[in-house]
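Forwarding the complex inputs:
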Amino acid sequence: MGNSITLTIDGQSVSVAEGTTVRAACEQVDTFVPTLCWHENLSPANACRACVVEVKGSRTLVASCSRVAEEGMVVETNTPRVENARRVVAELLTSTTDYSTAPQLMNLVKLSSADTDRFSGGANWEQPVKDDNNLYIRDLAKCILCYRCVEACGDDAQNTFAITVAGRGFNAHIDAGFGRALPESDCVFCGNCVAVCPTGALMGKTEWTLRSQNKWDENQLTTTETICSYCGVGCQLSLHVLDNQIVKVSSPMDHPVTQGMLCVKGRYGYQFVQIEDPTPV
Amino acid sequence: MGEVRRLLPPTDHKSLAVSWDRVVERGFDKAYQRVLDMGSDAAIAEVTASGIMGRGGAAFPTGRKWDSVRSSPGNAKYVVMNADESELGTFKDRVLLEQDPMGPLIGLLIAAQCVGARQAYCYIRGEYREVEAALSQSIDILRDKGWVGKGTVEIEVRRGAGAYIAGEETALFNSIEGKRPEPRVKPPFPTVRGLFGAPTLIQNVETLANVAVLFAHDVKWFRQYGTSATPGTKLVAISGHVNHPGVFEVPFGTRLQEIIDADDLAGGISGTGHLQAVLLGGAAGTFLSSAEVAEVSLDYGPLAKYGASIGSGAVMAFDDSVDLIWVVTKLAHFFADESCGQCVPCRIGTQRVLEILQDGNTWQRESDLRDLGLAMRDASICGLGQTAPVALLSMLDRPYLRRFEMKGDEHVGE
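Prediction (whole assembly, two chains):
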């Protein structure tokens, strides 16, 4: 990385490598900046604006997830403007979407002391779950339009470009093209969008079914690490098991081979493990 | 002082707007030759000395911008004319391109020569079909003269598809690139990484027209009008309750009251004859009460004291029969329609502002609206979201504009 630069965060002097984002610099000095759309393995989308901070000399607040730290920059992470913006972001999102399975948004609500009723009562994103395939569902009522799925499907991981944002303003939404069902779209069902979704708007069909039957219990889940046996790439798999059944497969986000991303076989092709048929035909 | 015609052609011009004769009659042929002769360093220095600032709304010093693009590393560079004029109440670029398309085009060529670009784009609003045809013909005339083309500077016209947001410079780049017009995060600024990732100079039509007339004359001539801080003239688009709505060219520093009252300008207030307020700068502009209108002049410094700016040059006048809440509701509707939906404060905020206004709860929910407006202003990605609440906030800041507050239900929620 070469040179290091020095900036000030909440009065504290910090030296970071050139090219470090303000968010990462904050992390380095244990200054917590809330994020929703930011993801460690994806390029910053700048969409949620939960991570805004005040930078001296800047007219508007600055999204710390994408802004690269500069020499001599003076950053404040808890000014009244920042607090108001974070709070309003939380209030706007909760007035629009079902955040019952979105832990980061719940956390933002708590730490910003958001009043989730303040802007509610108007238009919202309530709509039926899109259940059009056997592998994952799309519950857009829970979507916060963080763009993570679009990026994972696009050039940050999968390079399939099956989904993007359609519509605009309040009606902007993630779409597989012309409102098509996923099986008719370009989707290859790698499930990498599901892996990065922070709100449960994209969810494996098995998990979604168990949740709707009240059978999903995080405390009962166990995880078994293994290596995918489909090919020789060596993707690490985390098998999430409930009642001795695999109910979800993921890969660690920090795994050097996968960076958390898998293909359709690794993520969804696990049924063979648990078919007990002693007499093959 | 009344109307001046420098950017707009003098009314006694004989040549057709779209013709080589017009180029000669306006002195633009000499202007371009003068730039080629003096070289880009001297030309940029002249732009800087003239004090031209961007006319699209941000008023960034033009010479500094050119310097920045010129000194940015990169083999390919681009210049873009932003003719995606979509701000409510703004129609000056349309009139300018109808009456004198050669000016902005020569300005564009000069800009390309100065920053070292071989490719230029004119991004024009989709609805301006006739203007676009005139612009294309004008480019062909310059092509016939060898001023436009592969060996020198190529100019391509791109048509917008109706989105207001595509007028935002980085969204405009995405649109030219064939992508969804969502604004990009800045920095990096277009001068460093713009169109196709290359250093890009993007200027409003009127700014380029200023460049053309500057080089057709000189700095001294250019600074004859305007103030020392803001030299030159400005096109203003006046609409609403005035006797002569339209586009007028006035020197910076002209009193706003004079623009509204002068016989050769807007010709006074129509309707009830009593001015209530002016919305200055378009939908993203600021309300000024009639008392403030009497005090201010058309210049950035004096207007900043009132929290106002010239913006796109739109002046909308409202007589005292107009319910301004009805007006801000219309504006809110516009922004909710035109938000691209990328960031939360704008995507959901514009919708909530509209709902609160439509419910007739403006004054009861003033503090909610203020918090929401400030969050939109502070935390939105681009100028659309940042300025969407400005007119509303300026009204909340001017309690004397609440004249309809007491009338209750008959006015609210229409």
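The two ends of chain A are 59 Å apart (CA to CA).
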